[in-house]
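Practice set, problem 2.
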Amino acid sequence: MKIFNLEIKVDIVKYRWYWFGISLALTVPGLIGIAMCLYEFHAPLKPGIDFTGGSILQYQFEKPLDLDQVRNVLEENGLPGSQVQKAFISGQEVIVMRTKAIDDESIKRKVDQSLESSFGTYKALSVDKVTATIGPELLQNGLLALIITLAMMIGYISWRYMFDYAFCAIVALFHDVIVLCGIYALMGLSMGTEVDSLFISAVLTVIGFSVHDTIVVFDRIRENAKYVGSKVKDKATGEERKRSFGDIANDSVNQTLTRSIYTSLTVVFTLAALAAFGGVTTRDFVMAMLIGVISGTYSSIFNASCLLVYWRELKQKQKLKAATA
Protein backbone atom coordinates (compact mmCIF):
# COMPACT_ATOMS: atom_id res chain seq x y z
CA MET A 1 0.00 0.00 0.00
CA LYS A 2 1.03 3.63 -0.39
CA ILE A 3 0.53 6.20 2.37
CA PHE A 4 1.71 9.70 1.52
CA ASN A 5 3.70 8.26 -1.43
CA LEU A 6 5.55 5.80 0.84
CA GLU A 7 5.37 2.12 -0.09
CA ILE A 8 4.47 0.21 3.07
CA LYS A 9 3.60 -3.46 3.51
CA VAL A 10 2.32 -4.63 6.86
CA ASP A 11 2.42 -8.32 7.73
CA ILE A 12 -1.02 -8.44 9.33
CA VAL A 13 -1.41 -12.21 9.54
CA LYS A 14 2.01 -12.88 11.07
CA TYR A 15 1.22 -10.83 14.17
CA ARG A 16 -2.43 -11.81 14.50
CA TRP A 17 -2.11 -12.87 18.15
CA TYR A 18 -0.94 -9.36 18.99
CA TRP A 19 -4.06 -7.91 17.31
CA PHE A 20 -6.28 -10.42 19.14
CA GLY A 21 -4.54 -9.49 22.41
CA ILE A 22 -5.21 -5.78 21.86
CA SER A 23 -8.88 -6.58 21.22
CA LEU A 24 -9.07 -8.58 24.45
CA ALA A 25 -7.46 -5.70 26.32
CA LEU A 26 -10.19 -3.43 24.97
CA THR A 27 -13.19 -5.72 25.40
CA VAL A 28 -12.55 -7.43 28.76
CA PRO A 29 -12.60 -4.21 30.87
CA GLY A 30 -15.71 -3.15 28.95
CA LEU A 31 -17.46 -6.44 29.69
CA ILE A 32 -16.57 -6.04 33.36
CA GLY A 33 -18.00 -2.50 33.24
CA ILE A 34 -21.21 -3.78 31.64
CA ALA A 35 -21.53 -6.43 34.35
CA MET A 36 -21.04 -3.78 37.06
CA CYS A 37 -23.71 -1.59 35.42
CA LEU A 38 -26.11 -4.54 35.42
CA TYR A 39 -25.52 -4.89 39.16
CA GLU A 40 -25.76 -1.18 39.97
CA PHE A 41 -28.29 0.18 37.44
CA HIS A 42 -30.06 -3.08 36.43
CA ALA A 43 -29.11 -2.21 32.84
CA PRO A 44 -25.95 -2.79 30.73
CA LEU A 45 -25.36 0.98 30.60
CA LYS A 46 -26.43 3.84 32.83
CA PRO A 47 -29.85 4.80 31.40
CA GLY A 48 -30.70 8.41 30.67
CA ILE A 49 -34.03 10.14 31.00
CA ASP A 50 -35.12 8.80 27.60
CA PHE A 51 -35.31 5.41 29.31
CA THR A 52 -36.26 6.39 32.85
CA GLY A 53 -38.07 9.69 32.43
CA GLY A 54 -37.15 12.89 34.28
CA SER A 55 -36.99 16.67 34.17
CA ILE A 56 -34.80 19.08 32.20
CA LEU A 57 -34.22 22.56 33.61
CA GLN A 58 -32.39 25.27 31.67
CA TYR A 59 -31.42 28.23 33.86
CA GLN A 60 -29.37 31.30 32.95
CA PHE A 61 -27.42 32.84 35.85
CA GLU A 62 -25.77 36.24 36.02
CA LYS A 63 -22.29 34.79 36.60
CA PRO A 64 -20.42 31.62 35.54
CA LEU A 65 -20.97 28.68 37.88
CA ASP A 66 -19.02 25.64 38.96
CA LEU A 67 -20.92 22.54 37.84
CA ASP A 68 -19.94 20.53 40.90
CA GLN A 69 -21.46 23.17 43.18
CA VAL A 70 -24.72 23.06 41.21
CA ARG A 71 -24.70 19.27 41.42
CA ASN A 72 -24.20 19.43 45.19
CA VAL A 73 -27.18 21.77 45.59
CA LEU A 74 -29.37 19.35 43.65
CA GLU A 75 -28.19 16.41 45.77
CA GLU A 76 -28.93 18.34 48.99
CA ASN A 77 -32.49 18.82 47.75
CA GLY A 78 -33.18 15.15 47.10
CA LEU A 79 -32.02 14.91 43.45
CA PRO A 80 -28.90 12.70 43.57
CA GLY A 81 -27.26 11.54 40.35
CA SER A 82 -28.39 14.60 38.39
CA GLN A 83 -26.51 15.44 35.20
CA VAL A 84 -25.37 19.07 35.01
CA GLN A 85 -23.89 20.57 31.84
CA LYS A 86 -23.06 23.93 30.34
CA ALA A 87 -24.54 25.13 27.06
CA PHE A 88 -24.42 28.41 25.20
CA ILE A 89 -27.52 30.04 23.75
CA SER A 90 -27.01 33.29 21.80
CA GLY A 91 -23.55 33.54 23.35
CA GLN A 92 -24.90 33.35 26.92
CA GLU A 93 -23.95 30.54 29.31
CA VAL A 94 -26.86 28.32 30.30
CA ILE A 95 -26.87 25.61 32.97
CA VAL A 96 -28.71 22.48 31.82
CA MET A 97 -29.83 20.20 34.67
CA ARG A 98 -31.17 16.71 33.96
CA THR A 99 -32.79 15.24 37.05
CA LYS A 100 -35.22 12.52 38.00
CA ALA A 101 -38.86 13.47 37.50
CA ILE A 102 -39.89 16.38 39.75
CA ASP A 103 -43.58 15.66 40.30
CA ASP A 104 -44.00 17.63 43.51
CA GLU A 105 -44.17 21.40 43.01
CA SER A 106 -42.86 21.97 46.55
CA ILE A 107 -39.62 20.17 45.65
CA LYS A 108 -39.30 22.38 42.56
CA ARG A 109 -39.73 25.54 44.68
CA LYS A 110 -37.20 24.26 47.21
CA VAL A 111 -34.64 23.62 44.46
CA ASP A 112 -35.22 27.08 42.95
CA GLN A 113 -34.79 28.77 46.34
CA SER A 114 -31.57 26.87 47.04
CA LEU A 115 -30.13 27.76 43.63
CA GLU A 116 -31.02 31.42 44.08
CA SER A 117 -29.58 31.62 47.60
CA SER A 118 -26.37 29.89 46.51
CA PHE A 119 -25.72 31.51 43.12
CA GLY A 120 -27.89 34.61 42.90
CA THR A 121 -30.81 35.47 40.65
CA TYR A 122 -31.41 33.52 37.47
CA LYS A 123 -33.70 33.34 34.47
CA ALA A 124 -35.61 30.09 33.87
CA LEU A 125 -35.42 29.50 30.10
CA SER A 126 -37.30 26.21 30.09
CA VAL A 127 -38.58 23.56 32.50
CA ASP A 128 -39.61 20.33 30.76
CA LYS A 129 -40.80 17.00 32.03
CA VAL A 130 -39.66 14.06 29.90
CA THR A 131 -41.46 10.74 29.88
CA ALA A 132 -39.66 7.47 29.21
CA THR A 133 -39.86 7.35 25.42
CA ILE A 134 -38.21 3.94 25.14
CA GLY A 135 -40.25 1.52 27.18
CA PRO A 136 -39.68 -2.19 27.77
CA GLU A 137 -41.89 -3.23 24.86
CA LEU A 138 -40.07 -0.96 22.41
CA LEU A 139 -36.70 -2.17 23.73
CA GLN A 140 -37.76 -5.80 23.24
CA ASN A 141 -38.91 -5.08 19.69
CA GLY A 142 -35.61 -3.31 18.99
CA LEU A 143 -33.58 -6.29 20.22
CA LEU A 144 -35.74 -8.65 18.16
CA ALA A 145 -35.20 -6.50 15.07
CA LEU A 146 -31.45 -6.51 15.73
CA ILE A 147 -31.37 -10.32 15.97
CA ILE A 148 -33.33 -10.64 12.73
CA THR A 149 -30.97 -8.15 11.05
CA LEU A 150 -27.89 -10.09 12.16
CA ALA A 151 -29.44 -13.36 10.91
CA MET A 152 -30.20 -11.78 7.53
CA MET A 153 -26.66 -10.39 7.33
CA ILE A 154 -25.20 -13.83 8.04
CA GLY A 155 -27.45 -15.36 5.39
CA TYR A 156 -26.63 -12.75 2.75
CA ILE A 157 -22.85 -12.77 3.34
CA SER A 158 -22.87 -16.59 3.37
CA TRP A 159 -24.70 -16.59 0.03
CA ARG A 160 -22.45 -13.97 -1.59
CA TYR A 161 -19.21 -15.31 -0.05
CA MET A 162 -19.09 -18.29 2.36
CA PHE A 163 -20.27 -18.97 5.89
CA ASP A 164 -16.82 -18.43 7.42
CA TYR A 165 -16.72 -14.94 5.88
CA ALA A 166 -20.12 -14.18 7.45
CA PHE A 167 -19.12 -15.54 10.85
CA CYS A 168 -15.88 -13.51 10.97
CA ALA A 169 -17.71 -10.34 9.87
CA ILE A 170 -20.29 -10.74 12.66
CA VAL A 171 -17.56 -11.40 15.25
CA ALA A 172 -15.81 -8.17 14.15
CA LEU A 173 -19.14 -6.37 14.43
CA PHE A 174 -19.73 -7.63 17.97
CA HIS A 175 -16.19 -6.55 18.85
CA ASP A 176 -17.00 -2.96 17.85
CA VAL A 177 -20.31 -2.91 19.73
CA ILE A 178 -18.72 -4.37 22.89
CA VAL A 179 -15.85 -1.85 22.75
CA LEU A 180 -18.28 1.06 22.35
CA CYS A 181 -20.74 -0.11 25.01
CA GLY A 182 -17.92 -1.13 27.35
CA ILE A 183 -16.33 2.33 27.24
CA TYR A 184 -19.68 3.98 27.91
CA ALA A 185 -20.39 1.53 30.74
CA LEU A 186 -17.09 2.50 32.39
CA MET A 187 -17.86 6.19 31.77
CA GLY A 188 -21.26 5.71 33.38
CA LEU A 189 -19.69 4.17 36.47
CA SER A 190 -16.84 6.68 36.79
CA MET A 191 -18.30 9.93 35.39
CA GLY A 192 -22.04 9.37 35.47
CA THR A 193 -22.36 9.40 31.66
CA GLU A 194 -25.88 8.36 30.64
CA VAL A 195 -27.08 6.92 27.34
CA ASP A 196 -30.16 8.07 25.49
CA SER A 197 -31.94 7.39 22.20
CA LEU A 198 -29.14 9.14 20.28
CA PHE A 199 -26.70 6.54 21.62
CA ILE A 200 -28.88 3.77 20.15
CA SER A 201 -28.69 5.57 16.79
CA ALA A 202 -24.90 5.75 17.12
CA VAL A 203 -24.65 2.01 17.82
CA LEU A 204 -26.76 1.16 14.77
CA THR A 205 -24.64 3.47 12.61
CA VAL A 206 -21.44 1.86 13.90
CA ILE A 207 -22.84 -1.59 13.04
CA GLY A 208 -23.43 -0.49 9.45
CA PHE A 209 -19.99 1.12 9.16
CA SER A 210 -18.22 -1.90 10.64
CA VAL A 211 -19.85 -4.41 8.29
CA HIS A 212 -19.29 -2.18 5.25
CA ASP A 213 -15.57 -1.78 5.95
CA THR A 214 -15.13 -5.51 6.63
CA ILE A 215 -16.91 -6.50 3.40
CA VAL A 216 -14.54 -4.29 1.37
CA VAL A 217 -11.59 -6.28 2.75
CA PHE A 218 -13.35 -9.62 2.29
CA ASP A 219 -14.28 -8.79 -1.29
CA ARG A 220 -10.62 -8.29 -2.17
CA ILE A 221 -9.70 -11.55 -0.40
CA ARG A 222 -12.35 -13.40 -2.43
CA GLU A 223 -11.06 -11.90 -5.67
CA ASN A 224 -7.48 -12.93 -4.89
CA ALA A 225 -8.35 -16.37 -3.47
CA LYS A 226 -7.88 -17.89 -6.95
CA TYR A 227 -4.11 -17.39 -6.50
CA VAL A 228 -3.94 -19.74 -3.50
CA GLY A 229 -1.41 -22.44 -4.40
CA SER A 230 0.39 -20.36 -7.01
CA LYS A 231 4.17 -20.32 -6.78
CA VAL A 232 6.10 -17.40 -5.35
CA LYS A 233 9.77 -16.90 -4.52
CA ASP A 234 10.52 -16.37 -0.83
CA LYS A 235 12.46 -13.11 -0.45
CA ALA A 236 14.33 -14.35 2.63
CA THR A 237 15.51 -17.74 1.35
CA GLY A 238 15.10 -17.36 -2.41
CA GLU A 239 13.22 -20.67 -2.57
CA GLU A 240 9.96 -21.17 -4.40
CA ARG A 241 6.90 -22.04 -2.39
CA LYS A 242 3.15 -22.17 -2.79
CA ARG A 243 1.13 -19.20 -1.63
CA SER A 244 -1.15 -19.99 1.29
CA PHE A 245 -4.53 -18.48 2.07
CA GLY A 246 -2.75 -16.41 4.73
CA ASP A 247 -0.46 -14.92 2.07
CA ILE A 248 -3.45 -14.01 -0.09
CA ALA A 249 -5.33 -12.46 2.85
CA ASN A 250 -2.27 -10.47 3.85
CA ASP A 251 -1.81 -9.09 0.33
CA SER A 252 -5.52 -8.30 0.07
CA VAL A 253 -5.54 -6.36 3.35
CA ASN A 254 -2.53 -4.35 2.22
CA GLN A 255 -4.25 -3.57 -1.08
CA THR A 256 -7.28 -2.12 0.72
CA LEU A 257 -5.41 -0.62 3.69
CA THR A 258 -4.89 2.80 2.14
CA ARG A 259 -8.57 3.10 1.20
CA SER A 260 -9.71 2.05 4.68
CA ILE A 261 -7.39 4.49 6.44
CA TYR A 262 -8.23 7.44 4.18
CA THR A 263 -11.98 6.81 4.41
CA SER A 264 -11.90 6.43 8.18
CA LEU A 265 -9.71 9.51 8.66
CA THR A 266 -12.21 11.59 6.70
CA VAL A 267 -14.99 10.48 9.05
CA VAL A 268 -12.79 10.87 12.16
CA PHE A 269 -11.81 14.44 11.25
CA THR A 270 -15.46 15.37 10.72
CA LEU A 271 -16.56 13.80 14.00
CA ALA A 272 -13.66 15.40 15.88
CA ALA A 273 -14.71 18.83 14.60
CA LEU A 274 -18.31 18.15 15.67
CA ALA A 275 -17.15 17.00 19.11
CA ALA A 276 -15.09 20.16 19.57
CA PHE A 277 -17.52 22.73 18.17
CA GLY A 278 -20.89 21.00 17.80
CA GLY A 279 -22.28 21.82 21.22
CA VAL A 280 -23.16 19.83 24.30
CA THR A 281 -26.44 18.33 23.05
CA THR A 282 -24.82 16.13 20.38
CA ARG A 283 -21.44 15.55 22.05
CA ASP A 284 -22.21 12.11 23.49
CA PHE A 285 -23.62 10.95 20.14
CA VAL A 286 -20.55 12.22 18.27
CA MET A 287 -18.15 10.66 20.79
CA ALA A 288 -19.94 7.32 20.46
CA MET A 289 -19.62 7.54 16.68
CA LEU A 290 -15.95 8.45 16.98
CA ILE A 291 -15.17 5.47 19.20
CA GLY A 292 -17.18 3.14 16.97
CA VAL A 293 -15.55 4.28 13.71
CA ILE A 294 -12.02 3.87 15.10
CA SER A 295 -12.88 0.45 16.54
CA GLY A 296 -14.62 -0.59 13.30
CA THR A 297 -11.60 0.35 11.21
CA TYR A 298 -9.27 -1.57 13.53
CA SER A 299 -11.43 -4.71 13.61
CA SER A 300 -12.00 -4.83 9.84
CA ILE A 301 -8.25 -4.58 9.14
CA PHE A 302 -6.67 -6.52 11.99
CA ASN A 303 -9.35 -8.83 13.38
CA ALA A 304 -11.74 -9.97 10.65
CA SER A 305 -9.08 -11.01 8.11
CA CYS A 306 -6.85 -12.68 10.73
CA LEU A 307 -9.83 -14.54 12.17
CA LEU A 308 -10.75 -15.75 8.68
CA VAL A 309 -7.19 -17.03 8.10
CA TYR A 310 -7.22 -18.78 11.49
CA TRP A 311 -10.58 -20.42 10.64
CA ARG A 312 -9.22 -21.67 7.29
CA GLU A 313 -6.06 -23.02 8.93
CA LEU A 314 -8.14 -24.95 11.48
CA LYS A 315 -10.25 -26.45 8.69
CA GLN A 316 -7.08 -27.40 6.78
CA LYS A 317 -5.65 -29.14 9.85
CA GLN A 318 -8.92 -31.04 10.32
CA LYS A 319 -8.82 -32.20 6.67
CA LEU A 320 -5.21 -33.39 7.07
CA LYS A 321 -6.09 -35.30 10.24
CA ALA A 322 -9.07 -36.92 8.52
CA ALA A 323 -6.92 -37.87 5.50
CA THR A 324 -4.21 -39.31 7.75
CA ALA A 325 -6.76 -41.31 9.74
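Problem 2, part (b): a different protein.
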Amino acid sequence: MSILRTGCGLLLWVCLVVCMAGSARAQAIAESELEELGGVTASATTNDSGPAGIIPSVRGFDASLATSSQHDSSSGWSSVLTPNAAYRLNKYLSADASVPLYVYINIDANVGTKAKPVYAYEARNGVFGDTSLAAHFDATALTIDYNATVSMGLPTGNTAFGLGAGQVTFDINNHFERDFDIFTPNIEIGYGDTSALVDQRVLKSYIAVGPQAHFQAGLSVDLPHQMNFEADAYEELPLTKDLVYSTTGKGKKKVTTSTNEGPAEDNGFTATLDIPLTSHVTMSGFYNHSLIDHDDTAGFSFTFMLKPQPEAPAAAK
Protein backbone atom coordinates (compact mmCIF):
# COMPACT_ATOMS: atom_id res chain seq x y z
CA MET A 1 0.00 0.00 0.00
CA SER A 2 2.86 2.34 0.81
CA ILE A 3 4.37 1.82 -2.64
CA LEU A 4 0.97 2.32 -4.25
CA ARG A 5 0.41 5.58 -2.34
CA THR A 6 3.88 6.78 -3.25
CA GLY A 7 3.31 5.92 -6.92
CA CYS A 8 -0.05 7.69 -6.98
CA GLY A 9 1.43 10.74 -5.30
CA LEU A 10 4.28 10.81 -7.81
CA LEU A 11 1.82 10.47 -10.72
CA LEU A 12 -0.32 13.34 -9.38
CA TRP A 13 2.79 15.50 -8.94
CA VAL A 14 3.91 14.76 -12.55
CA CYS A 15 0.41 15.60 -13.85
CA LEU A 16 0.44 18.86 -11.90
CA VAL A 17 3.85 19.83 -13.31
CA VAL A 18 2.75 18.98 -16.87
CA CYS A 19 -0.47 20.99 -16.50
CA MET A 20 1.44 23.97 -15.11
CA ALA A 21 3.99 23.75 -17.93
CA GLY A 22 1.22 23.46 -20.52
CA SER A 23 -0.58 26.45 -19.02
CA ALA A 24 2.62 28.52 -19.00
CA ARG A 25 3.37 27.50 -22.60
CA ALA A 26 -0.19 28.40 -23.72
CA GLN A 27 0.11 31.76 -21.95
CA ALA A 28 3.49 32.37 -23.61
CA ILE A 29 2.02 31.52 -27.04
CA ALA A 30 -0.96 33.80 -26.41
CA GLU A 31 1.36 36.64 -25.35
CA SER A 32 3.59 35.95 -28.33
CA GLU A 33 0.62 36.04 -30.72
CA LEU A 34 -0.65 39.21 -29.08
CA GLU A 35 2.77 40.79 -29.53
CA GLU A 36 2.91 39.72 -33.18
CA LEU A 37 -0.61 40.92 -34.03
CA GLY A 38 -0.46 43.62 -36.65
CA GLY A 39 -3.27 45.70 -38.16
CA VAL A 40 -5.71 42.81 -38.17
CA THR A 41 -8.43 44.74 -39.95
CA ALA A 42 -6.31 47.21 -41.90
CA SER A 43 -4.05 44.88 -43.87
CA ALA A 44 -6.86 42.47 -44.62
CA THR A 45 -9.31 44.96 -46.03
CA THR A 46 -7.12 47.63 -47.61
CA ASN A 47 -8.22 48.06 -51.25
CA ASP A 48 -10.88 45.52 -50.30
CA SER A 49 -8.89 42.52 -51.52
CA GLY A 50 -10.90 40.06 -49.45
CA PRO A 51 -12.17 39.12 -45.98
CA ALA A 52 -10.05 39.21 -42.84
CA GLY A 53 -7.71 36.24 -42.67
CA ILE A 54 -6.28 36.14 -46.19
CA ILE A 55 -3.29 38.04 -44.78
CA PRO A 56 -2.12 36.39 -41.53
CA SER A 57 -2.37 38.47 -38.38
CA VAL A 58 0.56 36.63 -36.77
CA ARG A 59 3.98 35.87 -38.18
CA GLY A 60 4.04 33.14 -40.83
CA PHE A 61 2.68 31.97 -44.18
CA ASP A 62 -0.91 31.45 -45.24
CA ALA A 63 -2.72 30.70 -48.49
CA SER A 64 -6.32 31.09 -49.56
CA LEU A 65 -8.60 30.42 -52.51
CA ALA A 66 -11.63 32.61 -53.26
CA THR A 67 -14.39 31.58 -55.63
CA SER A 68 -16.61 34.48 -56.62
CA SER A 69 -19.74 34.88 -58.74
CA GLN A 70 -21.21 38.26 -59.60
CA HIS A 71 -23.82 39.87 -61.81
CA ASP A 72 -23.17 43.15 -63.64
CA SER A 73 -26.23 45.04 -64.88
CA SER A 74 -24.41 45.74 -68.17
CA SER A 75 -22.55 42.50 -68.92
CA GLY A 76 -24.30 39.76 -66.96
CA TRP A 77 -22.78 36.96 -64.91
CA SER A 78 -19.12 36.15 -64.36
CA SER A 79 -17.23 33.69 -62.18
CA VAL A 80 -13.68 34.13 -60.84
CA LEU A 81 -11.19 31.96 -58.95
CA THR A 82 -8.52 33.92 -57.03
CA PRO A 83 -5.69 32.05 -55.28
CA ASN A 84 -3.68 34.13 -52.81
CA ALA A 85 -0.39 33.53 -51.00
CA ALA A 86 0.55 35.77 -48.06
CA TYR A 87 3.33 36.06 -45.49
CA ARG A 88 3.64 38.23 -42.37
CA LEU A 89 7.22 39.08 -41.34
CA ASN A 90 6.28 40.79 -38.08
CA LYS A 91 3.52 42.96 -36.65
CA TYR A 92 4.49 45.78 -39.02
CA LEU A 93 5.21 44.13 -42.38
CA SER A 94 3.38 41.63 -44.59
CA ALA A 95 3.07 40.80 -48.29
CA ASP A 96 0.76 38.86 -50.58
CA ALA A 97 0.30 37.86 -54.22
CA SER A 98 -2.76 36.81 -56.21
CA VAL A 99 -3.85 36.19 -59.79
CA PRO A 100 -7.52 36.01 -60.88
CA LEU A 101 -8.72 33.27 -63.23
CA TYR A 102 -12.01 34.12 -64.93
CA VAL A 103 -13.76 30.76 -65.16
CA TYR A 104 -16.67 32.39 -66.99
CA ILE A 105 -17.14 35.92 -68.31
CA ASN A 106 -19.15 37.74 -70.98
CA ILE A 107 -16.97 39.66 -73.43
CA ASP A 108 -18.14 42.37 -75.85
CA ALA A 109 -16.71 40.73 -78.98
CA ASN A 110 -16.92 41.34 -82.74
CA VAL A 111 -19.14 38.57 -84.11
CA GLY A 112 -19.12 40.13 -87.59
CA THR A 113 -16.20 40.96 -89.87
CA LYS A 114 -13.51 43.66 -89.89
CA ALA A 115 -15.30 45.46 -92.69
CA LYS A 116 -18.69 45.19 -91.02
CA PRO A 117 -18.14 44.73 -87.27
CA VAL A 118 -21.04 43.59 -85.18
CA TYR A 119 -20.49 43.63 -81.43
CA ALA A 120 -22.33 41.35 -79.06
CA TYR A 121 -21.63 39.57 -75.79
CA GLU A 122 -19.91 36.20 -76.02
CA ALA A 123 -18.93 33.89 -73.18
CA ARG A 124 -15.25 33.12 -72.55
CA ASN A 125 -13.78 30.53 -70.20
CA GLY A 126 -10.44 30.11 -68.45
CA VAL A 127 -8.99 33.61 -68.98
CA PHE A 128 -6.41 35.16 -66.63
CA GLY A 129 -6.40 38.70 -65.25
CA ASP A 130 -3.40 40.75 -64.13
CA THR A 131 -1.28 39.38 -61.28
CA SER A 132 -1.22 41.54 -58.14
CA LEU A 133 1.78 41.81 -55.78
CA ALA A 134 1.42 43.88 -52.60
CA ALA A 135 3.47 44.87 -49.55
CA HIS A 136 1.76 46.17 -46.40
CA PHE A 137 2.95 48.24 -43.45
CA ASP A 138 0.80 48.32 -40.29
CA ALA A 139 1.15 50.69 -37.34
CA THR A 140 -0.92 52.23 -34.56
CA ALA A 141 -0.52 55.76 -33.20
CA LEU A 142 -2.85 57.68 -30.87
CA THR A 143 -5.50 54.91 -31.11
CA ILE A 144 -5.58 55.22 -34.92
CA ASP A 145 -4.67 52.16 -36.99
CA TYR A 146 -2.71 52.94 -40.15
CA ASN A 147 -1.94 50.70 -43.11
CA ALA A 148 0.17 51.59 -46.13
CA THR A 149 -0.07 49.28 -49.14
CA VAL A 150 2.17 49.39 -52.19
CA SER A 151 0.78 47.24 -55.02
CA MET A 152 2.19 46.24 -58.39
CA GLY A 153 0.24 44.72 -61.26
CA LEU A 154 1.94 42.38 -63.74
CA PRO A 155 0.48 42.22 -67.29
CA THR A 156 -0.72 38.61 -67.27
CA GLY A 157 -4.30 39.55 -68.17
CA ASN A 158 -5.91 39.40 -71.60
CA THR A 159 -6.13 43.00 -72.88
CA ALA A 160 -8.28 42.04 -75.89
CA PHE A 161 -10.97 40.92 -73.44
CA GLY A 162 -10.57 43.97 -71.20
CA LEU A 163 -9.00 41.94 -68.40
CA GLY A 164 -5.48 43.38 -68.38
CA ALA A 165 -3.74 46.74 -68.35
CA GLY A 166 -1.16 45.62 -70.93
CA GLN A 167 1.72 47.03 -68.85
CA VAL A 168 3.25 46.95 -65.38
CA THR A 169 1.10 49.09 -63.08
CA PHE A 170 1.26 50.33 -59.47
CA ASP A 171 -0.84 51.76 -56.68
CA ILE A 172 -0.01 53.35 -53.30
CA ASN A 173 -2.82 53.39 -50.74
CA ASN A 174 -3.08 54.91 -47.24
CA HIS A 175 -5.74 53.48 -44.95
CA PHE A 176 -6.72 55.05 -41.59
CA GLU A 177 -9.23 53.62 -39.14
CA ARG A 178 -10.22 53.81 -35.47
CA ASP A 179 -12.33 51.49 -33.34
CA PHE A 180 -15.31 52.82 -31.39
CA ASP A 181 -16.57 49.65 -29.75
CA ILE A 182 -18.26 47.73 -32.61
CA PHE A 183 -17.97 50.63 -35.09
CA THR A 184 -14.83 51.36 -37.11
CA PRO A 185 -14.84 54.40 -39.42
CA ASN A 186 -12.15 54.45 -42.10
CA ILE A 187 -10.62 56.77 -44.68
CA GLU A 188 -8.44 55.84 -47.66
CA ILE A 189 -6.33 58.09 -49.89
CA GLY A 190 -4.35 56.61 -52.77
CA TYR A 191 -2.54 57.24 -56.02
CA GLY A 192 -1.63 54.94 -58.90
CA ASP A 193 -1.92 54.33 -62.63
CA THR A 194 -4.65 51.68 -62.84
CA SER A 195 -8.15 51.06 -61.54
CA ALA A 196 -7.53 47.30 -61.42
CA LEU A 197 -5.63 47.52 -58.10
CA VAL A 198 -8.49 49.37 -56.35
CA ASP A 199 -11.49 47.55 -54.83
CA GLN A 200 -10.40 44.15 -56.09
CA ARG A 201 -13.46 42.25 -54.86
CA VAL A 202 -15.64 43.75 -57.59
CA LEU A 203 -14.95 42.95 -61.25
CA LYS A 204 -15.57 46.11 -63.28
CA SER A 205 -16.30 46.19 -66.99
CA TYR A 206 -13.18 48.24 -67.74
CA ILE A 207 -9.58 48.76 -66.66
CA ALA A 208 -8.33 52.34 -66.67
CA VAL A 209 -4.61 52.97 -67.20
CA GLY A 210 -3.11 56.37 -66.42
CA PRO A 211 -2.33 58.63 -63.42
CA GLN A 212 -5.29 58.72 -61.05
CA ALA A 213 -6.16 59.41 -57.44
CA HIS A 214 -8.70 57.45 -55.43
CA PHE A 215 -10.50 58.19 -52.17
CA GLN A 216 -12.77 56.25 -49.84
CA ALA A 217 -14.67 56.92 -46.62
CA GLY A 218 -16.85 54.45 -44.80
CA LEU A 219 -17.75 52.47 -41.73
CA SER A 220 -17.45 48.84 -40.71
CA VAL A 221 -19.59 47.22 -38.03
CA ASP A 222 -18.71 44.12 -35.99
CA LEU A 223 -21.75 41.85 -35.84
CA PRO A 224 -22.44 38.76 -33.70
CA HIS A 225 -20.64 35.49 -34.50
CA GLN A 226 -17.60 37.38 -35.91
CA MET A 227 -19.60 38.70 -38.86
CA ASN A 228 -18.57 42.06 -40.32
CA PHE A 229 -20.46 44.59 -42.44
CA GLU A 230 -18.83 47.52 -44.23
CA ALA A 231 -20.26 50.35 -46.34
CA ASP A 232 -18.10 52.89 -48.21
CA ALA A 233 -18.37 55.82 -50.59
CA TYR A 234 -15.56 56.06 -53.16
CA GLU A 235 -14.14 58.28 -55.90
CA GLU A 236 -11.66 57.34 -58.66
CA LEU A 237 -10.39 60.44 -60.44
CA PRO A 238 -8.07 60.42 -63.51
CA LEU A 239 -5.43 63.17 -63.35
CA THR A 240 -4.40 63.26 -67.02
CA LYS A 241 -5.03 61.45 -70.30
CA ASP A 242 -6.01 57.86 -69.69
CA LEU A 243 -6.43 54.65 -71.61
CA VAL A 244 -9.41 52.45 -70.89
CA TYR A 245 -9.44 48.81 -71.91
CA SER A 246 -13.14 48.06 -71.86
CA THR A 247 -15.45 45.11 -72.48
CA THR A 248 -18.50 47.36 -72.67
CA GLY A 249 -17.32 50.69 -74.10
CA LYS A 250 -19.52 50.98 -77.19
CA GLY A 251 -17.95 47.94 -78.81
CA LYS A 252 -14.40 49.27 -78.54
CA LYS A 253 -11.55 47.45 -76.88
CA LYS A 254 -9.61 50.64 -76.23
CA VAL A 255 -11.02 54.12 -75.58
CA THR A 256 -8.80 57.19 -75.32
CA THR A 257 -10.01 60.37 -73.67
CA SER A 258 -8.22 63.69 -73.18
CA THR A 259 -10.34 65.01 -70.31
CA ASN A 260 -10.51 64.23 -66.61
CA GLU A 261 -14.15 63.25 -67.03
CA GLY A 262 -14.18 60.13 -69.12
CA PRO A 263 -14.54 56.38 -68.94
CA ALA A 264 -11.85 56.18 -66.25
CA GLU A 265 -13.67 58.32 -63.68
CA ASP A 266 -15.96 56.51 -61.31
CA ASN A 267 -17.66 57.16 -58.00
CA GLY A 268 -20.36 55.45 -56.04
CA PHE A 269 -20.98 53.15 -53.10
CA THR A 270 -19.90 49.67 -52.06
CA ALA A 271 -21.11 47.34 -49.32
CA THR A 272 -19.73 44.00 -48.13
CA LEU A 273 -20.84 41.42 -45.59
CA ASP A 274 -18.41 38.74 -44.36
CA ILE A 275 -19.81 35.69 -42.56
CA PRO A 276 -17.31 33.14 -41.16
CA LEU A 277 -18.79 29.69 -41.65
CA THR A 278 -15.84 27.94 -39.98
CA SER A 279 -12.37 29.08 -38.88
CA HIS A 280 -11.18 28.21 -42.42
CA VAL A 281 -14.13 29.33 -44.59
CA THR A 282 -15.74 32.76 -44.98
CA MET A 283 -18.81 33.50 -47.07
CA SER A 284 -19.11 37.06 -48.40
CA GLY A 285 -21.69 39.13 -50.19
CA PHE A 286 -20.88 42.41 -51.96
CA TYR A 287 -22.66 45.17 -53.84
CA ASN A 288 -21.36 48.10 -55.90
CA HIS A 289 -23.33 50.99 -57.40
CA SER A 290 -21.57 53.34 -59.85
CA LEU A 291 -23.15 56.80 -59.99
CA ILE A 292 -21.28 57.75 -63.17
CA ASP A 293 -21.76 54.53 -65.13
CA HIS A 294 -25.29 53.90 -63.76
CA ASP A 295 -24.13 50.33 -63.24
CA ASP A 296 -24.95 47.85 -60.45
CA THR A 297 -22.81 44.87 -59.54
CA ALA A 298 -23.72 42.30 -56.90
CA GLY A 299 -22.20 38.96 -56.02
CA PHE A 300 -21.10 36.45 -53.43
CA SER A 301 -17.93 34.50 -52.72
CA PHE A 302 -16.47 31.74 -50.58
CA THR A 303 -12.91 32.11 -49.30
CA PHE A 304 -11.07 28.97 -48.18
CA MET A 305 -8.05 29.58 -45.92
CA LEU A 306 -5.21 27.15 -45.31
CA LYS A 307 -4.75 28.18 -41.67
CA PRO A 308 -7.47 29.29 -39.24
CA GLN A 309 -7.53 32.95 -38.38
CA PRO A 310 -6.71 33.44 -34.65
CA GLU A 311 -9.09 35.66 -32.78
CA ALA A 312 -7.58 38.96 -31.74
CA PRO A 313 -7.81 39.45 -27.96
CA ALA A 314 -9.86 42.46 -26.85
CA ALA A 315 -6.69 44.13 -25.57
CA ALA A 316 -5.24 44.05 -29.09
CA LYS A 317 -7.98 46.27 -30.48
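Answer key, part (b): The chain has two helices and 17 strands. The longest strand covers residues 206-222.
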